[in-house]
Design goal:
The protein is α+β, with helices and mostly antiparallel strands. The chain contains 12 helices and 4 strands.
Length: 241
């Protein structure tokens, strides 16, 4: 006769049965795309992922200066609008602003090449926009829908203006599947003068976006930053087909 106690059934535990505060804590540790994806799993996860505190944290993480300015002025997300709606609206405004920059670059391309003055102006215009951070660069400038020069502007801005470590920029390029895109940087220098001037000296460097996040690409980025100053009389960046 078997006198061993009958094993009780193991209760089935489901993610959607988590207490709401724990679900919100989980959602608060995710990035935007993951929050949206998780919110589509069930009604309970949707409630957690739509929580105002989750979107407030995402907003402050992505646009810290804008959030701080709103807080200091006593503004912010109204009770009616909420942080999610505020986040979506600001995302759209940022998309419009950066699409204008992309249009400027496209309009000044000549046979697939962009002169240094327009390249540097695009970088300066990007830096003058309010609170454009690394997440914005990844969303809007590392897109495969744009050409490699716009990808390059996002890369250069991230490293030179936002001071993002090149290794992190490389990971972002890789995630967006643009790291192997190539550009060609061409420069012409005035010929040396010996009582008469020698012909211009020209050189070109074909390089991938991935290489530009490595030590081998540092010199090329320095050349692009200098633009047409110094001994360089013409500099342009071209698409490599």
């Amino acid at each position: 006769m078997d006198l061993s106690p009958t094993a009780s059934p193991v209760p089935v535990r489901r993610w959607q049965d988590l207490p709401e505060d724990i679900a919100i804590a989980v959602a608060s540790r995710l990035e935007e795309a993951d929050v949206c994806a998780l919110g589509g799993c069930s009604r309970s996860w949707r409630r957690a992922c739509d929580a105002d505190c989750v979107w407030e944290a995402l907003f402050r993480r992505r646009w810290p200066a804008t959030a701080a300015a709103a807080a200091s002025s006593g503004e912010g997300a109204s009770g009616v609008q909420g942080w999610k709606a505020l986040y979506i609206n600001h995302h759209r405004k940022t998309a419009v602003a950066i699409s204008g920059l992309a249009e400027f670059v496209e309009n000044n391309l000549r046979y697939g090449s962009l002169e240094a003055e327009y390249y540097l102006k695009a970088i300066a215009d990007l830096a003058s926009m309010t609170d454009i951070g690394f997440i914005d660069a990844q969303f809007f400038l590392f897109s495969r829908n744009h050409n490699a020069i716009i990808n390059l502007i996002g890369l250069h801005y991230s490293i030179a203006s936002l001071h993002i470590p090149p290794s992190e920029v490389h990971k972002a390029l890789q995630a967006r599947q643009v790291e192997e895109r190539k550009v060609c940087v061409s420069l012409s220098r005035l010929g040396r003068c010996y009582g008469f001037r020698l012909p211009e000296e020209s050189e070109s460097h074909e390089i991938s976006l991935r290489q530009l996040t490595m030590p081998v690409g540092a010199e090329t980025l320095t050349i692009l930053e200098r633009g047409t100053f110094g001994v360089v009389c013409r500099l342009q960046v071209s698409l490599v087909t």
